[in-house]
Amino acid sequence: MTATESDTRLHSLLRALDGADNVLILTHNNPDPDAIASALAMKYLVQHVTSATATIGYRGIIGRAENRALVRYLEFPLQRVTLAEIDKAKTLIMVDTQPGTGNNPLTNERRIAAILDHHPKLEAPANAEHVDIRPEIGAASTMLTQYVQAAELPLEQQLATALFYGISTDTMSLQRGTTNEDQKAFCALLPKVDFEAIARIETAALPQDYFSQLHKALRSARIYDSAVIASIGEMRYPDITADMADLLLRYRECRWAICLGVYKDTVYFSIRTQNKRGAGLLARKVVGSDGAAGGHGAMAGGQIPLNGRKPRSVINRLRQQFRLELGGSGKETGAKLV
User: Fold this and answer.
1) Cα–Cα distance, 128 to 109 (Å, whole number)
2) Does 225 lie in the same domain as 189?
3) Which of 3, 20, 187, 216 has CA atoms 20 to 30 A from the CA of 247?
4) Rounded to an integer, what distance in angstroms lies between the CA atom of residue 136 and that of residue 159?
5) What would the pLDDT profile of 177-189 be if each residue is shown by its tens digit?
């Protein structure tokens, strides 16, 4: 991306924020490192380039040990917000998500100042003044790095570390779904990164229930040709499925790893693949109109509200549908992984 393009996007964002007093920056419900870092960078931009104040909000839970460690390192920059607080917000910015995706509480009807995301653009047009959606980019943190650079703001160590970690986690350290823009942002951040902090984040202490859920995932995992599908059952937090799918994909014969689980009244699943494309499409096909799904070429996820249905029946249907979409008959029992 050229300097002119970066400047144009920055000026468009600033026009959308003209006259704003208080800005609510909203991530998806259960923010990951990319969402957390992107929101932090947006807050930095708002408070240094405009006269407005900014708050970072999310609706769900920060569950993974690494994500909680990142938030501690960043001195707890996010806060859980209520639907009433979101409704009252006069100026809204969404990062790493879009209205109507199902992983945040907003619909396309809600007026939003700005949307910055790297997930595929939804068919329904967003009601936003500034829209920067670039699905070819590997991480929203790359996009926000460009905005900070265009504003000629210094990238301080804490923010640089968060953005670097956001890019690293969403692209597997530039091994998955990256562009030259991701590489440039990664390299620009590199000299300022606190690698001791990243080491602490990546090796964050794990609670006992993590291992009990790992045990359930491994016991339930079944191999279907080059796919491994596992179910956790009840989960302490919804993004544990991503942890398990990441691990299952490391099985030598695995091309597709899928993990499902139940959190409160919703079935969540995560997809990982060795292929460069197809995960997001698979997630959307399987969910259909029954819930929400999205993602990129190599990683995706989705959620389906139970709406009174039994969790086991929904999970079994999803497992069968995944097998069908991946070329099976849907009736295979599969071989045990362990």
Assistant:
1) 10
2) no
3) 187
4) 23
5) 789 999 999 999 9
pLDDT value for 107? 85
**Contact (CB, 8 A) for 125 and 138:** no
Sign of dihedral through CA atoms 70, 72, 75, 77? positive
Tokens 């139940």 identify what position?
A: 262
How far apart CA 237 and CA 230 sit, in angstroms, is 16
pLDDT tens string 203-223? 999 999 999 999 999 999 999
Residues 234 and 186 in one domain: no
* Statement to judge: residues 196 and 259 lie in one domain: no
How do residues 220-237 score in pLDDT, each as one tens digit?
999 999 999 999 999 999
Give the residues across from 22 on adjacent strands.
Answer: 53
Which domain does 112 fall in, by range?
A: 3-201
Residue 156 neighbours by CB under 8 Å, 6+ apart: 192
Is 164 in the same domain as 110? yes
The pTM (predicted TM-score) of the whole model is 0.94
